[in-house]
Structures are given as structure tokens and as C-alpha cells.
Design a protein that fits this description.
Elements: E1 2-10, E2 19-25, H1 50-59
Antiparallel strand pairs: 1-2
Length: about 70
């Protein structure tokens, strides 16, 4: 999977919970209601390395309610 973006901490993506949000690129579903249609085609390499995501999640273990 190609990671297009990472929000390290969010309070709006899951009501009443503290989350990290990972935006993936290259979704095959092409839903007409998608809020991130620019991320559907894989035109560029990922903007965020998986190791960066893993490191963030390790640091925030016990603090985040979800990803």
C-alpha cells in the first residue's frame, strides 16, 4: 500500500476518540462520494514511509484510541 498522508493526531475522524489517520493511495473502488478522489490513482510514490507510521504508532501507544 502507498501512504499518501498521515495525520498524527485527530479528534474529528472518530467522535469522542483520539486517533491517527493514515491516507492510503490507490484505492480500487472509485466510490462516487469519496472525499479523497485525488488519492485514487497512484501517480506518485508514497509521501510517507511505513517506518514513519510505525514509529509514530509506537510512540503514541496507550494515547491513541484508534488508527
Amino acid at each position: 500500500m502507498v501512504i499518501a498522508g498521515l495525520v498524527p493526531m485527530s479528534t474529528v475522524d472518530w467522535p469522542d476518540r483520539l486517533t491517527a489517520t493514515v491516507f492510503l493511495q490507490g484505492c480500487p473502488w472509485n466510490c462516487f462520494y469519496c472525499h479523497n478522489r485525488d488519492l485514487i490513482p497512484v501517480r506518485t510514490p508514497g509521501q510517507v514511509a511505513w517506518e514513519e507510521v510505525r514509529a509514530l504508532l509506537r510512540r503514541r501507544r496507550g494515547l491513541l484510541d484508534g488508527v
